[in-house]
C-alpha cells in the first residue's frame, strides 16, 4: 500500500549540491580577481581576492552575481594582499582634503575595512566613490567614512574597541555561523510554527520561537519590566527551546523587554548569531551594561555578567534595513523600519524558499505623515511588502484610543508652564531609549520657540549615552532633524539649558535646588534607576509634578502610581519608609512610541498584501481581546477580502501557521 | 526591587525528604513482618518481608497504610523466604479440590506470584482467600487463580512466556522506573500544557504530550491508518518531544491508531514505563506483531522489529481500572472504563498534588443503558469524577447523528438475509479488535434466535487471537455475556457455523465456494490484511455485498469505496489490475464503538463536574468545528454554569491549560 503524501513534502530542502554550484559560479564569474578563498562568513559569502583592482574595475559584476545567486556576496582582499596599517594611514592622510578633519582612523581586520572618522565627511562624499576605489586599489583596504559623533559615549567606544581586539574570535564565529547557515539540510521545511515564550497575553519579556522543522529562530530575548528574577525571563525552560538547537536570535530593537535576556542565552551556551540593526547593536551594549548594574543594586548577584554581553556582541551580525539575509538554510530575514525607536525593526521572515512569509511587527509606530504636525524623530513603520501570510502584531494599545501626538506635546508644554509658575519641579520617567530623546527634542523645540521659559532640563540615567548613538545615525531620523545635524551641525537633543547629570553634584543640584526644573530620568517605569531617588525626595511637595509619557507595565512602581496609589513603601536611608505622594501625577499617553489603537487599525487597513493569519501579542489581555474583536467583526472594513484567522496564544502556547487547516480554524473562530 | 511572584510557584514540588518519611512510616508500621528491603518498583512501593505469615494475619494493616500514604504498596516475600517451585507445585496440587481442574501452574519471580490456571476456578473462589493465605504462609508465594481461556492464543502465550524468561530484566526496569517516579523534583509543577503530536484535526496517529515543567507524559502513540511510512507517525520530531525526557507513555487502548508507533519509541531509545490495562497489554501484543507482518508485506522493511515490541512489554506496567497510580513525581494517573473496546480507557491525570485535573476520553462509547435494547459487549463510559478541569474529548462523530445501535443490528440482519437469498457472499471489514467481536456476538445471537439462516461465518485475520483475549476477561463484559461465559461456560463469540480461517484451505473455501457466506476479516479500513484479497475476488459479482461497520479514515481503500469509487487499481497476480466494483456497498454506522454525536453531547450533559476547558481532537475538521459550535452556543443547555473554553488545536499546536488567562480566552472565543 502506498503511503499517503501529506503536508510533509520538503520544498525547502537544499543541500551540498547547491552549495557546490554557488562556489563554482563565483569562481567562474570572478576568475580574473585571483581568488584566494571563498568563505561562508555568517550570512555572507566572502570572496577573498588577491587583486583588489578587480573590485574597483568590476563593481557591477559582483552586484549582478549577488542578485543572480540571491546571496549576500562581499569581496575582500586577502589579508596578505593588504598594505600595512601604517602605510594605509599615511596614504589616506596624504590624499584626503584637509578640511575633512580626520579625527580617527580605525581598522577592522575581519572585514578588511579602514574606518575614517571625520568632522565633515560631507566634504568627501561627492568624490567618495572615486576616493574609496583609490584607497582600495592602492592599499587593499575598503574605506568607510563616518561622521564624528556629536556626543561621545565612552561606554560604547570601549566595547567597540573590545570587539576590535577580538577580531580573530569574531572571524572564527562568523565562519562557524556561515557553515551552519549554508549547511546541508537534514529535513527541509516541514511546517511553520510559532511558540510564545514571552509577551503573549502580556507586555514584556518578548520571545517568540519560530520552528520550521529544519531550523529554529528566536525573535527577541526580552526581560519583563516586573523584575529581574527568573519570573521575569521568557519561558526558556520550555522543552522545545534549546540554545544548542537555535539557528539564530533576531533582535527587533534595543528595549530591555526585547533584549534584556540575550546575555542569559550566551551564559547558557548559545554560540549562534544575533542579528540586529547597527543602531540596535550600539544601544544594546549600553542598556545591557546598565542592566547589570541595576540588577546588582536590586538583588546582589546578576544572572549574567559583562562577558556574556561581550559574547553576544562577538556573534552579533549587523544588518541594515531592507537587506535580505540568510539566517538559516530555509529562512531569509529582512529588517524593516518600525518607527518605534532608533534602529527598531519589524522582522520579515521568508521561509522555505517561497513557502511562507511572516511579518513580526515587534513594537512599531505607524502614523500618517500627512496629518502630522508634531515634532517627530523617526519616520513611521513601513506597510507594503512582497508577501505576508502571517502577521504577528503588538497590541499594546489595542483597547483604547490615545490622544494625538500634537495634543500630547501641547499638554506637556502646558504642564511645564504650570509647574514653573508654582515654583515646582517636573519629574519625567523616561526609558533611556526612545522616549528620552523624543521628549528632549520636544522640550528644546519649545524652548527655542519660546513656548516654555528658560528652565533647566536635567537628564539623568543612561539617556546621555543613548542620545550619543542617536546623533550617530542622522540618516535614520526624519528630514528636519537629519538636516539640523548634517547641514547645520546642530544637536537637536541639546538646548541652552540642558544639563547631563554625570556626577553627584549635578544630581544634588537637580534635586535640592530651590528653582523650578525639569528632570528626565530612567527607568521609564520607575522600576529602578535614579528616577526612584528623585521621586523619594520630590513626592511630598504638591508644587512638584510627575508626568508619565509612556506605557507602565503591571507590577511596576510607575503603574501603581498611575493607578492611584498615594502611599508607597520604599527603601530609604537604610530602612523601609512610607512615602506620602502629594505631587501632581499626570499621564500623557500621546507620546507613545507604540501605534495607538487607531494606528494599529490604520496599519491593518494599509497593510499590503493582507495576511491570512493574525497573531496578536504584546498587550494586556483586555487590549488583545478588544483588538481581536474589532478585527474579527470589521475585517471587511479593513480591506480584507476574506476573514483572517485571528489568534492570541498565551505564553507556552504554539500556533501552527503552515500547513494549516484554514477551514477548520475559520469555522472554529466564527462558530 | 522585589520580583513579582507570577504563576510559577512550585506547589507540586516534593523531594527526597518526603521519600525518606515514606520509608520510615513503612518500616514503623510493618516492623513485625521482618522487612528485608523496600524498593520503588515502577509506581509501586514493594516491601520485601521475611515473614510471610505477617501478611496473612495483617492484611488490613497494609491496606490502611497504603490509604494513609496515598501510595500503591505491595508486600512480597523476600525471594530467599520463598519455598522452591517444586515444593510449591506439590503443595498446591495436594491441597486443591480435584474438580477445580488445574491446567497449568506458572511462576512470576518478579512479583513472587504463583499462577494457577484452572478449568473451574469458581470451585476455589468461595474459599479462595483462605486458600490463598494458606499457600502464602506455607510457601511464601502469592497465589493467583485464572480461568483456562475459552480460546487459546498461541501468539499471546509465547510472548507472555518470553516475559517470564526475562524476569530479571523486568525487575531492573521496574526499579529504574520507580527511582524516576519517586525522584527528587527539580522544578515542580510550573504549568500544564498539552501539545498535539497527532490526532488533532484528524482521526488517527493519536499522540498527546502533557508537559508540566517537571515532567512529561505521552498519551497514546498511534499510527495513522493512511499508511505505514513516516507520514503516518505522530510528530515525534517536534522539538518539545524527546524520548529521553519522557516520564511515561500511557496507552488508552490497543487500536493501532493509539498504539501503532509505541515500538518506534523504544527503537529510538525510550526506556521508561508504558501504562496500560491488562487487556490492552494482551491485545497490544497481538496487533503490534501483526502490524510488523503487514508492514513487511506492504513496504519491505518495517520501521521496527519484534524485539522493539518486546522491549515495550518489558517496561509495561499493567494498571486496572480505577486504580490511582503515580506515573511521575507530580502526576497521578487513573484508567477509567471507556466502553470502546475491551480494556479501553479514559485517562484521568491528577497533576501537581491537586493543582489540576485532565480527563482524556480517548475513544469512548457513552450510551444510556436504560434505553438500550441491543446486543452490547461492554458497559458504557463513566461520567462522574472527583475533579476535572480540562476535558480532552474525541469528536469522531461530532457533526452527524448516526443510527441507533438496535437499528444497525436490524439492518445488518436484513442485509445477511438479502445476500443469502441471492446466493451471494457478505464481506465485512472489521478491526481485529472490537468491531470483530461485536459483530460476531450479533450474528451468533441472530443465528441462535433464528433471525438469519444457518450460514457459515468465516473469521479471518487477527480476530481469532483477539477474541481469545476477550474470553479471558469476562468480568469486563456486560452481565449477560459475562454470565454466559462464567456460569454457562459458553463462548458467546462462537456459534455452530463459525469457521476460524487458520490456513489457506479455509480461506480458499471462504472465497471460492459457491455457497452464501459471511466473511469477517481485517483490516477494518481495508488498508491491508486478508480483507483486500477477499475484496479483489468478490468485488466483481453483484450478488455479493461489502458492509462497512466502522469509521473509514480518509486515504484508506475503505473510504474510497465508501465515497463511491467503483474502479480501483490494486496489485494482483504480480501486476496492477483495474478492478470493477459491482458488489453492493453498504455503510452501517450504528455499530460504531465511538460515541455518536448525540452521545457526545449526552456525555457532556452528564459529565460531573463540568470542565472549564474543552479540547477537541480525534475528528475530521468538519466534525470538530460542528461539535465546537454546538457546545459554544449550547453550553447552558448542556448544564454548564458558565461557558467553557473550547479549543481545537491542530497537530503541533500547544494549549496551555494551567495557569491560564481564562478571561482573555473567553473574550477571544466570544468576540
UniProtKB/TrEMBL annotation, chains A, B:
The residues that the entry says bind Zn(2+) 1 are 253, 255, 340, 363
Q: Return the annotated region ranges for KHb.
A: 83-150
Instruction: Fetch the CDD domains from UniProt.
Output: KH-II_CPSF_arch_rpt1, TTHA0252-CPSF-like_MBL-fold
Q: What class of enzyme is it?
A: hydrolase
Q: What is one GO biological process annotated to this record?
A: DNA-templated transcription termination
Residues that bind Zn(2+) 2, according to the entry? 257-258, 363, 618
One annotated GO molecular function is: RNA binding
The entry sums up its family as follows:
Belongs to the metallo-beta-lactamase superfamily. RNA-metabolizing metallo-beta-lactamase-like family. FttA subfamily.
Q: What is this protein called?
A: Transcription termination factor FttA
Q: Which organism is it from?
A: Aeropyrum pernix (strain ATCC 700893 / DSM 11879 / JCM 9820 / NBRC 100138 / K1)
